[in-house]
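Possible regression after last week's pipeline update?

I re-ran a chain I had predicted before the update to compare outputs. Posting the input and the new output here so someone can diff against the archived version. Not blocking, just want to make sure nothing changed silently.
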Amino acid sequence: MAWDEWEQAKAEVAGRQDIAMRLNQVPADPGPSASAVTGGLKSSKKAWVTAGEGVGSLRKSVTTALTELEDGQAGLGTATGCLSAAAQKEVYDSWKTYTKSVFERCGSLQSLLERVGNDQLKTDEAVKGEIDQLKKKYADTDALGGQSKGR
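New output (post-update):
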């Protein structure tokens, strides 16, 4: 008897529409009464602004690191005639360029996140486009220093 019930349950399930597929997709035509936020997903303005502030706070740490880097470089004099001093100067210049780029990148990302939070960028496509532009602008490059340069 239990086997007959099992066969009946399987037949009932096989006859139903796949519920998971129906729940995991947006209707093809939501109609005129559909809300502006499809599927009930909402974005928190506060979360976007807080993320922007967090990224912006990194700029202070980068500025501190750059100041310490410059302080460490002070007093070394000219690098002519001393290979280790020349190598150190090359590394310093490379890191100075890199930290300035990180500082600028943090500022750009902070601005973007805050604009999203303040509804100035309203669509996913607009946000993705802005992030793609940041990726292009701040694409990492090959290391600037540290190569032997034939020495």
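Follow-up from reviewer: compared with the archived run. The CA atoms of residues 32 and 74 lie 67 Å apart. Marking as no regression found.
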